């Protein structure tokens, strides 16, 4: 296993000269592999943050060198199924309840509308910037039940866990979590088991890996013989990571490598992992938008903290009565886009009725969604070009 040599300053990862050098290296490696626009090397970037970097800096145009980016299920808001949004609305609509949520989740559609619609109808839904903000609301309003809509991958789990532990220490009884935390490795296994998915390699998520380290990805190399390179978020980070994936393919290797060595450690963050383990345990199954039920892919609150578990407190979701799973909205292709089977412009709603100001699907709602990224940085030129044909 190898790692990239860390640079001293982040500015170097935005330097045009370094970018040109990496682009030249990618071109040489792609040529060695015989990659062409018609027969490209497909690399899945898992993280929504990487998707935005790719489009913001025009890296998607590497297709001209035979490299195709496939956008993976790396946006936690985007992979929430409609049923979980419906359950969240049910909690928020109960008398005496304040629901605290990140702003990205406000407009995600369920079958009964969104949290924004629920708020307009009278539900007390408030935007917060951290779980600690939600806990502060509980302190200020002891007569109300404050529920934090806890979502995100391993990146946000430690903050949620530490907030629950703080609530326990303070003896705050009117605070709970509606837990929708999910993990990265399990959906990748599902994608790799799909014979229709032709992915040659992966660019791994930097922030998640900062917490969990490298070991959880080993099965990708060992069982499925695909390289994965954990990457940072600057343009040169992404280019360097692509070059590292291509180098492995040229050399016939399949390993887990760490381009983001200035932040990510092989063992991850022991303190963060300890907090996660203290509060959460894996669910036997959890539903993902576009991927269905995936074993051991979600987290739930351990039994000793049941008093802080909104599922148990309110009898909803996996802790009680689950909302029915519903098909995607008519003509919405979020499911196919989430699993990399379709590009955003291939959805019949993209750029027409589904735009950031009038989003239909979760991938256009979330700031990390691939549809939003594609529209903001690249999709307008595609939509405009198609409209003129």
UniProtKB/TrEMBL annotation:
It comes from Rhodopseudomonas rhenobacensis. GO terms for molecular function: 4 iron, 4 sulfur cluster binding; carbon monoxide binding; iron ion binding. This is Hydrogenase maturation factor. Signal peptide: none annotated. InterPro entries: Hyd_form_HypD (IPR002780), HypD_1 (IPR042243), HypD_2_sf (IPR042244). One of its GO terms (biological process) is protein maturation. The lineage of its organism: Bacteria, Pseudomonadati, Pseudomonadota, Alphaproteobacteria, Hyphomicrobiales. Belongs to the HypD family. Keywords: Iron, Metal-binding. Pfam families: HypD.
């Amino acid at each position: 296993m190898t790692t990239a040599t860390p640079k001293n300053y982040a500015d170097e990862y935005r330097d045009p000269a370094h970018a040109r050098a990496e682009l030249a290296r990618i071109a040489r490696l792609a040529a060695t592999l015989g990659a062409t626009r018609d027969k490209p090397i497909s690399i899945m970037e898992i993280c929504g943050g990487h998707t935005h970097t790719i489009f913001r800096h025009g890296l998607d145009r590497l297709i001209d060198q035979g490299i195709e980016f496939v956008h993976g299920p790396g946006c936690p808001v985007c992979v929430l199924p409609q049923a979980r949004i419906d359950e969240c609305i049910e909690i928020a609509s109960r008398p005496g309840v304040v629901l605290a949520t990140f702003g990205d989740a406000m407009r995600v559609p369920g079958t009964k509308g969104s949290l924004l619609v629920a708020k307009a109808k009278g539900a007390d839904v408030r935007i917060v910037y951290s779980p600690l903000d939600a806990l502060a609301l509980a302190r200020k309003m002891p007569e109300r039940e404050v529920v934090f809509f806890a979502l995100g991958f391993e990146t946000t789990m430690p903050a949620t866990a530490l907030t629950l532990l703080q609530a326990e220490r303070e003896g705050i009884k009117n605070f709970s979590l509606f837990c929708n935390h999910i993990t990265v490795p399990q959906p990748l296994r599902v994608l790799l088991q799909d014979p229709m998915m032709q992915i040659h390699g992966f660019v791994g998520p930097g922030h998640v890996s900062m917490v969990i380290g490298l070991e959880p990805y080993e099965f990708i190399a060992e069982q499925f013989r695909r390289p994965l390179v954990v990457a940072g978020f600057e343009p040169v980070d992404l280019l360097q990571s692509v070059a590292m994936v291509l180098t492995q393919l040229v050399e016939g290797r399949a390993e887990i490598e760490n381009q983001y060595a200035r932040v990510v450690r092989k063992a991850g963050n022991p303190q963060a992992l300890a907090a996660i383990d203290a509060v959460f345990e894996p669910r036997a199954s959890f539903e993902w938008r576009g991927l269905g039920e995936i074993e051991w892919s979600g987290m739930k609150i351990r039994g000793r903290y049941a008093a802080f578990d909104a599922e148990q407190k309110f009898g909803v979701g996996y802790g009680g009565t689950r909302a029915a799973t519903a098909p995607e909205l008519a003509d919405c292709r979020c499911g196919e886009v989430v699993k990399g089977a379709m590009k955003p412009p291939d959805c019949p709603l993209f750029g027409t009725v589904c735009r950031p100001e009038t989003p239909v699907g979760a991938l256009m709602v979330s700031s990390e969604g691939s549809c939003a990224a594609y529209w903001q940085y690249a999709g307008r030129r595609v939509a405009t070009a198609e409209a003129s044909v």
